[in-house]
Amino acid sequence: MQRQYLRGISEYISAALLAIIVLGVGALVVSRIFENAYTAQQLAERQLVKTTLETRQDLIITLAYIDSNDTLHVVIVTDNTPVKLYDVYINDTPWSSRCTLSLNNGQTLIPHNVALPYYAAATITCNGAGSYADVKIVYEGGEAYASAKRI
């Protein structure tokens, strides 16, 4: 028996097919990498927006004075986001335990770890402040400062 010559695919066609397969797999890998990078970017942007909104709290001291009885009065207002009030310092000493926080709705609290609603006006009153006080109010969005003198 005579062996018949089997005809195969030309080496040019096989090289072209191999190149097409490699390019297809490469395109698939690159598209998955870009998809993962895009997803990671979206998650990072969402986290940034969330963090920005959480720390965008704003507390403003509008008035600070000491009356003739050595009682410090600090009037504060909040912006369009609720504010988490942590502590009140007078002359770099924590004074929250000696102060009261009166909200504009009539509620009275101790100004330590308190959540203030948005667009709220409140008065912090502290007894025994002396004739001069440097006031620092620490809240989740930062710190607010004021100086108060006896009037």
If you had to describe this structure to a student in words, what would you say it looks like?
With 151 residues, the protein is an alpha+beta fold. It folds into 2 domains: 1-54; 59-149, Immunoglobulin-like (Sandwich). The protein has 1 helix and 10 strands. It has one helix at 11-54, and strands at 59-66, 72-78, 83-90, 93-94, 99-103, 108-109, 114-116, 121-126, 132-139, 142-149. A 5-stranded antiparallel beta sheet has the order 1-2-8-5-6, with no helix packed on it. Strands 3, 4, 7, 9 and 10 form a 5-stranded antiparallel beta sheet that branches. A hairpin with a 2-residue loop joins strand 9 and strand 10 (142-149). The radius of gyration is 34 Å and the shape is rod-shaped. The termini are far apart. The model has no long low-confidence stretch (mean pLDDT 89).
Task: Reconstruct the topology from this structure.
Layout: H1 11-54, E1 59-66, E2 72-78, E3 83-90, E4 93-94, E5 99-103, E6 108-109, E7 114-116, E8 121-126, E9 132-139, E10 142-149
Antiparallel strand pairs: 1-2, 2-8, 3-4, 3-7, 3-9, 5-6, 5-8, 9-10
List the defining traits of the structure above.
151 residues; 38% strand; alpha+beta; 1 helix
**Sheet with the most strands, sense and barrel status:** 5 strands, antiparallel
CATH class of the largest domain: Mainly Beta
Helix share bin: 25-40%
Number of domains: 2
Coarse morphology: rod-shaped
Number of helices: 1
Which strand order do you get reading across the main beta sheet? 1-2-8-5-6
| Structural class by helix and strand composition | alpha+beta
Low-confidence stretches: none
| CATH topology type of the largest domain | Immunoglobulin-like
